[in-house]
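Researcher: Next sequence.
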Amino acid sequence: MPRIRTLMLALLATMLSAGAGALDAGSALASHGQSLWFEAPAELLNPATRAETIEQMQRLGVKGVRIELSWNAVSPGSESAKRPNFNASDPSAYEWGAYGSLIEEIHALHWQILLTISPPAPRWATSNGTAPYVTRPDDRDFKEFMTALGRRYGADVTDYGIWNEPNEYNSLRPQFGAGGAPVAGRIYKGLFQAGYAGLRTAGINSPRVLMGETAPGGFAKLPKAVPSAGVAPLAFLRGALCLNAAYRKAPTCSKLPAYGWAQHPYAPNTKGPFDVPANPEWVVIGTLGRLVNALNKAGKAGAINRGLPIFITEFGVMSKPNHYFGIPASQQAEYDAISERIAWENPRVASFSQYLLRDDALSPEPNVVTFQTGLESAGGAKKPLYYGFPIPLTVTYARHGYDLWGYVRPSAGKATSVTVLVQHPHSSGFKVLAKLHTNRLGYWTLKSKVRGTHWRVRWSSPAGVVYQGPPIRAYRAP
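Model: Next structure:
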């Protein structure tokens, strides 16, 4: 059920290496839209807060939800070392609980649902039966579970993700094998194939199953200093697709039927979305082009379909009071909008995402980091991102002024009108800069020579609800 995800500081600290440079290829002006996955597990899985949360999400313009469903949480005898005697392909054998009611309620709203099957596995489905029950989950058991899942919720779920962050030590083990070489990708390949086959057995002829769900950082070889390290996403990708370092496919491996590659491109530190980590195996929001290039090579090698889209299925910007990686709340709104624009400008990216509506509470344990990526503080106070999220705005310096970009999320993908305001130097108030129309998807751009210190957007819904975003500063893009 709802759980606070944490990051061990020792591992997250390895993500602090950074380099300099421009964004990778794939940033030409986009003409496409992108779907959004919103994740609010604590509030949505709690029946007492679900209705209010859904109302909030509707006001924010959300029309797609990501749900992480733990295999262990719904399975019979999940803490037993011996598998119970039951028909694992029968959906009635599982206790779907709040997951099931949430899926049904979201489906009734005609929203998209991404259902990501997440660790841990039942104890009896792992190779060593040792907590945290993520060591070599049994492919056959997983196939039967996915068959049951597909039979129960196949008509309700839009997309499936297989295994949350399988390139992390606490999600799948082992990550590395003899000599420090990555092995998690090969283990994951079996899970993906088993999960896909299970959905086919359930009667879903062409299930939309995303590969990856990978975390942004890690290593291509196990470092002695970090025995609990994870595999870097591109090294993991090569392992899962039977590719060597030169992206040549092993002849014994067949093409995998992935619908897309799912990535969690959290920026590695407080340097922001334009930052380029020095490690070339990492995929953060500023280096999505690395993943595009890797998928292109994999497609050329015949490991996956050519042109496989990228789905950003988990993302957020950490704000204070996080002691290690938090930035001011006003800057969180700016960085989040810039990140969305980066994703939108890449024609291979099919979705953006927001992880958390409300911040996790800070952990009292040393060296453990919880997530303060929400639109609200842990106490429920609305942060600037709450007001910026439905109408994101970016302002970047241009040669002769400024380039502005924005989106009206609650317009339901339809053309609408917005008002752009500017605060002039030495002024305490805002004045109207422009009134303009969005395109048919709700996006807009503007070039301006008017000097300003801050900008914001105002939009009125057809029902008369007025949205006004927070003040936004200008940034210099690489």
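Model: Confidence is low (pLDDT under 50) at residues 15-30. The CA atoms of residues 208 and 295 lie 18 Å apart.
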